[in-house]
Amino acid sequence: MPGPQPSWQVEPCPPWCVREHDEDDIALDRYHQGEPSRLQVSMSTTPEEPREATFATVALTLRTGRYVGESVDWIAIEPVAPRMTLTAESARRLGQRLAQQLAQHSSAVRTDGADRAPGTDGTADTDGV
Fold first, then answer.
1. Which tens digits make up the pLDDT trace of 64-89?
2. SS3 labels along the chain
3. Which residues share a beta bridge with 44?
4. pTM for this one?
5. Over 70: is that where the pLDDT of 95 sits?
6. In this structure, what are the phi and psi dihedrals at residue 19, rounded to the nearest 5 degrees?
7. Other CB atoms within 10 A of residue 113 CB
């Protein structure tokens, strides 16, 4: 955080914070935020069962945050309705579990790509969305 620390900020910014803090920030804007990363994914866009026709390419934004004065870091995944916000530890466990599921899936599927949903061939995964 460049510039002087506002009087309401009770601790220094964590090393990952890139958010500008101002003296006149309202209470809901008083949080630390990391650099967002963006990723295009293919995901079902309906609450129904994930049928092939329900998949669409969606640009997700992932960002780290923590409200000033609190001790829990969180990871927000947007736009997902409702927004998915996990503690950093929960996000770590989710990442590990996703890796396990992908390893099981990869060892069990055909290699010809016939099992892939639209947009899951890796070409839609970008950080520069």
1. 889 999 988 888 888 866 667 777 78
2. CCCCCCCCCCCCCCCCCCCCCCCCCCHHHCEEECCCEEEEEEEECCCCCCCHHHEEEEEEEEEEEEECCCCCCEEEEECCCCCEEEEHHHHHHHHHHHHHHHHHHHHHCCCCCCCCCCCCCCCCCCCCC
3. 55
4. 0.63
5. yes
6. -80, 140
7. 9
